[in-house]
Design a protein that fits this description.
Rossmann fold; 14% strand; two-stranded antiparallel sheet; 47% helix; alpha/beta; 8 strands; single chain; 202 residues; 2 domains
Amino acid sequence: MVIKVALFDMDGTIWSAPIDWGEARRRIGVPDDGYPIAHHLAQLPSEERAEKEAILRHFEEEGVRLGRPVTGAAELLEFLRHHGIKCVLVTNNSRRSAETVLRETRLAFDAVFTREDGALKPEPEALLRPLEHMGAKPEEAVLVGDSHHDLVAALQAGIREVVLISPSERARSFFPEGARFREAKDLIEAREILEEIIDFGS
């Protein structure tokens, strides 16, 4: 099947944010159970949720302020577009943070989906909705990310091709047993893997 859409994560994939998310979880008071912080906040009463969302926004804003683009992101997007593949950003981050990162990096995506747009990764709907928006099937997509959120969402959505960039040991601890994915040390190596996937698909 020909690849039509590449779904990209943001933090840890195209943007390097030196943030201690473990500390963020401790300050907000949510468990490290493999689900994103925003998942837990959505289940709180409105007053408590607003207070803790402010802490999350602070950490996200620090991630934007202190972060930097990941080497090779612009070249990878250009390579995919050259092959007629649409590029979509799908992040559990806020739209405000995503838009700031895109201004800083000058990276252009065909569509951007943030947590304000609906389901969060690792829920499959977080990827299925962008694919529906782009008119593509899961088997016509590839996902490029770095975490268990990306991997689990892709597996449950039926996306067969997943490329993870240097996943952390914490992320690996939440990987489903036997999960199939390809691993790259950086976006430059990811491009080589994607070239193989595209050539095989065509």
